[in-house]
Specification:
This protein has a single domain, classed as Rossmann fold (3-Layer(aba) Sandwich), CATH 3.40.50.2020. Helix content is about 30%, strand content about 25%. Helix 3 links the parallel strand 3 and strand 4. InterPro entries: PRTase-like, PRTase_dom. It comes from Glycomyces endophyticus. This is Phosphoribosyltransferase domain-containing protein.
Length: about 210
């Protein structure tokens, strides 16, 4: 069932905030201890509203969106993205932090070209380092300026600042922006790991 029309506001950046009236009631459910099934359901509902707005704007601008999941957290937004961007090719990027630096380990995404928008999806943007690394790699591989955008549900103040320092004109769409980060490095009020949530939690076996 499709979501009804939603309020959206744009402020310089450009930053598009899509926060339906019921969104703030959901926010408290993301606090620790957070039920991962509830977090996944809420994220899908919020992402549906957000990506409906983003997809429409990209299409209206003549540059339809090609969603690219930033692993692992962005996986929570993929079902909504595929509903919002029907028939669009999509891809993924896998990045890891090694010795303090974000390294792109693997990517499989539609080749960027002037007629599409490479729409990065990441549920929680905390430091902004991963998004900057992905954008720099796209730039290095010949992506045209202005061909990318970012959609996330949670955006910290420091994350946006980090992205804007390198890519000041990147279009960003989110539900909540300007979020603070606690002393533990986690986004204040958010008690779940989006990557763990995307794969169902539980004990994980990871390598390398």
């Amino acid at each position: 069932m499709s979501e009804p029309a939603h309020p959206a506001t744009m402020r310089p950046g450009p930053l598009l905030e899509v926060r339906p009236p019921w969104a703030d009631r959901l926010y408290q459910d993301f606090a620790a201890p957070c039920d991962l099934a509830v977090a996944a359901s809420h994220t899908d509902r919020l992402a549906a509203r957000l990506l409906h707005a983003v997809s429409a704007r990209c299409t209206d601008a003549g540059r339809p969106a090609a969603p690219v999941v930033v692993m692992r957290g962005g996986m929570l937004m993929l079902p909504a993205a595929r509903r919002a961007c029907v028939g669009a090719p999509w891809g993924f990027v896998l990045a890891r932090r090694r010795a303090g630096e974000v390294v792109i380990e693997r990517a499989d995404l539609p080749k960027p070209h002037p007629g599409t928008t490479t729409l990065l999806l990441d549920t929680v943007v905390n430091t902004g380092d991963t998004i900057v690394a992905v954008l720099q790699e796209l730039e290095r591989r010949g992506a045209a300026p202005g061909s990318a955008a970012l959609a996330c549900v949670f955006l910290t103040e420091r994350g946006e600042a980090r992205i804007r320092a390198r890519f000041p004109l990147l279009p960003i769409a989110t539900v909540w922006s300007g979020l603070e980060v606690g002393a533990d490095g986690w986004v204040s009020g958010i008690g779940f790991d989006a990557g763990d949530c995307a794969v169902g939690g539980g004990s994980r076996l990871q390598w390398p």
